[in-house]
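User: Run a structure prediction on this.
Assistant: Running it now.
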Amino acid sequence: KFRLLEEWADKLGCEHIATGHYVKVVSENLGAEEKYYIVTGDDDRKDQSYFLWRLTQKQLSRLLLPLGGMDKPSVVEYLKQNGFDALAKGGESMEVCFIPGDYRDFLKENVPDIEERFGSGSFVDCEGRVLGKHQGYPFYTIGQRKGLGIALGYPAYVIKINPVKNTVMLGTEEQPVTRYMLIDEPMWVSGIPENLTVRVRYRSHRVKCNVPEPVGDGRWLVCLQEPVSAITPGQSAVFYCDNIVVGGAFIA
């Protein structure tokens, strides 16, 4: 979306781009160049720094973020005071932005033959034993607990997905835990600092880590200082030093 915003800003002759993300941008003068960093928003519950790690220095230099220093109640009060009552009463969006319902409905609408293409597959346990049938692996995500459509007598979580075999592995909350992960071609703002932490999901807490060296094919090993559950290939790993975003990558 930011690429499109940039294109329209250029067409309209706009110097800046403003968005409603709960983040801030700070700059650092390094002599001949200026570096821009994303900083977490003041409202910890709404901070959206996790989503913006791929923005370029040029994009960050144009960005205005008026909500970064506000919390949600302050924003609602501002809307009320300035005549935007309908917006102030608007509900929270907890799903994928701009998609009504959830992503499963979106997939069915935009890939009409998705259910025929992938078909029903098997739920399996960690030993490979078949536990039941599922609707097709695209409709599940690692860490998912609700909406599985199977009762095992205990809270079951998706801990692994095999698209080749169309199997979805179920286990307990404690099973999908690891202290290591691989990331693909990380982007660092200016080197890898000490006191590094990483967030592997939007709502997850930041975990201390170190990234010793690349292991080949553009991949790097990340060593986590505490066990982390439901690390999901394809999602973002975003790295922080204090409250500053210093890099990011997709989980391999």
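The CA atoms of residues 209 and 225 lie 6 Å apart.
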